[in-house]
Automatic annotation (TrEMBL):
Domain annotation Response regulatory: ranges: 2-118
GO biological process: phosphorelay signal transduction system
SMART domains named among the record's database cross-references: REC (SM00448)
Pfam families: Response_reg, YcbB
Entry annotated with the keyword Phosphoprotein: yes
SUPFAM superfamilies registered for this protein in UniProt: CheY-like (SSF52172)
Protein name: Response regulator
Modified residues (4-aspartylphosphate): 53
Record has Phosphoprotein as a keyword: yes
Keywords: Phosphoprotein
Organism classification: Bacteria, Bacillati, Bacillota, Bacilli, Bacillales
Amino acid sequence: MRYYIVDDDKASRTMLKNIIEEEDLGIAIGEADNGKECLSAIMTMHPDVVLIDLLMPEMDGIETIDLLKREGYEGQFVMISQIVNKEMVGEAYKKGVEFFIHKPINRIEVQSILKKIVEQCRLKESLLTIQESLANIGLANNTLQKPQSVKQIVLSTLNYMGIIGEAGSDDIISIIEYLVNERGHSPQLPPLKELYEKLAGRSGASLTEVKKETKAIEQRIRRTILTAINNLASLGAIDYTNPEFEYYAPRYFDFQEIRTHMIHIQEGRGDTAKVKVNIKKFLQVLYLETLEKYNKTH
């Protein structure tokens, strides 16, 4: 979930941001200290939830919500308030506010409310998925799965990670093709060096050339996986609930590495020099998923 915080009290904004990130409720993608300042940013960034103070100078929370809705914002609002005024609360409900956070801010209350919102969004997504499935079920029942080659399956996966054009993508495809087609579908991955040497020696190269190409293959694959890490971390930094991010980040990589790199991106430090790359985990998961999909259509 992506949150935007609007509150004229900096301490409140900082506290809310810390609770969101420390409790793994998503990420705070922006903040503002008044209603006028936040309008353009919210319409550009499209956060899932806007946490907004009820009373602010220049433009209060209700006026800001009204303007955002007129502009077409369709996310959710959580009102922050230290006063209990039935008329204002009633007006907020009319504008579509479902949840309130009271000041002084309480960690337990914030955590409870935001968890409800996360669950609500997941339920909506599940309902949409079910509706789409029901709409297409007739077509799905009458359509036979076409057999796919190993290369097509791997390319599809690499495409989701944004690394089809990388130099190491061809090496990765060749490795998975070898594992699926020539090793009897064994679930275990051989030593990486053995795989690299197998690829390097296919053209009848000399021992010296094989050693040189083996190192080159490893470097190309490492750089390609590093690019995938950067792509997914960038995706997660923008949208923590993105389906591609949620699926690939924890399966193919050390999620803590992804999470650390996301923080660096959010802080404006995009350097990948210190990111650890686990080639074996990446290839193992890719091989097993490719093998499963390949066996289903053959």
